[in-house]
Amino acid sequence: MKGQIFKIHSDFYYVHTRQGEYECKVRDVLKKRKDTIVTGDFVELEQPNENSKQAFVSKVFERESFIPRPKVANVNQVIIVSALKEPDLDFEQLNRYLSFCEYYSLHPVLCFNKNDLEGEEEIIAQIKRIYEPLNYEIVFTSALEGNGIEEFKALLKGKITVLCGSSGVGKSSLINAIRPDLNLKTKQVSEKTERGTHTTRHCEIITIENDSRIVDTPGFSQLKFDFLMPADVGLLFREIVEIQKQYGVCKFSDCIHEHETGCKIQEHPEMIDETRYQSYLQFVKEAKEYKKQVTYSGTKTESKSKFVHNKQITKISSKKRQISRRKSNQDIDKELNE
Ligand SMILES: Nc1nc2c(ncn2[C@@H]2O[C@H](COP(=O)(O)OP(=O)(O)OP(=O)(O)O)[C@@H](O)[C@H]2O)c(=O)[nH]1
Ligand SMILES: [Mg+2]
Ligand SMILES: [Zn+2]
Prior knowledge:
With 338 residues, the chain is of the alpha/beta class. Helix content is 30%, strand content 23%. The chain contains ten helices and 15 strands. It has helices at residues 28-31, 91-103, 121-131, 149-156, 171-178, 191-201, 238-247, 264-267, 274-296, 318-327; strands at residues 2-9, 12-17, 20-26, 42-46, 54-60, 66-67, 72-73, 77-83, 107-113, 137-140, 159-164, 205-209, 212-216, 305-308, 311-314. A six-stranded mixed sheet has the order 10-9-8-11-13-12, with helices on both faces. Strand 8, helix 2 (91-103) and strand 9 form a beta-alpha-beta unit. Helix 2 packs across helix 9. The longest helix is centred in the last third of the chain and has 23 residues, at 274-296. The protein is globular and about 70 Å long. The two termini are 27 Å apart. 31% of the residues are buried. Mean pLDDT is 84; it is low at 189-201 and 318-338. The structure holds guanosine-5'-triphosphate, magnesium ion and zinc ion (ZN). Zinc ion binds next to helix 8.
């Protein structure tokens, strides 16, 4: 029997199958390999007793996608939720989510919530000006008044969607708007800290309808671009890729489009919005700091790589990252390299 893990709780794995939900343990052979099973994994179940709703996970199928924080497999869409107002739209955060989607090859949709508030015309015009030419899918909603909610719901059909976005933008409210019976908790004074532990601990796939599933989490919010080479950051910006397609590549192959001569990106400032370029520079800065750390610790970058827009991105191996990170007393996020 095949199924999908929708929740993991201590040693129990909850699996959704055509025959209903099963509470499972994992066969010991699978346990030996660390981190083998995460929420979203498709698995094979063995039923010791036909009438029981308990079973064993005996096999894990290959993943189509993986997000490291929180760990979720097989997600095929990310809805990046922002508020038009309250809190103010943070373009850098939005671009960060977008670039992560590009990096993980996940389909992003931009959702701008709270469109019931007054005086938003200017920001809406700015959003359209920046993101429509980049061909990102955009939806404007109000979880409170119901604007755009049908459209939002339609986006979920046939997909496993992760909702990400800063605290207070209305992610849980949006889910409640399409499924009021779920009655998810929304903004409470103490929610922020609680939510932190909640999302990392119990990341759960909620079934909205038969073929619509959603994960309510802040997504990869804390991540920085400190795991790739500065010259590869441009591959995560569609307009930069487009400029090079139209006007050719920069003079230097490791150009980071900052102050170099013969840089096609700097020759065509009209092709990239200023807020996008500023976000780009910030991500390059993060990648540069990391490169410096790696160089300082006397290690070289590794040949492990990944393809984005058919171009190879160099990744720094987990071993090398550990060495330099230990130096700076930071957490190690091995999953990034999986
Ligand atoms: N005016 C207006 N307020 C909204 C809308 N959606 C949500 N809110 C309010 O915004 C606040 C935050 O909403 P939540 O749904 O808790 O936000 P969240 O994104 O889940 O936040 P975290 O769980 O902390 O990440 C609540 O007070 C909601 O009532 C909307 O469309 N319009
Ligand atoms: Mg919430
Ligand atoms: Zn350049």
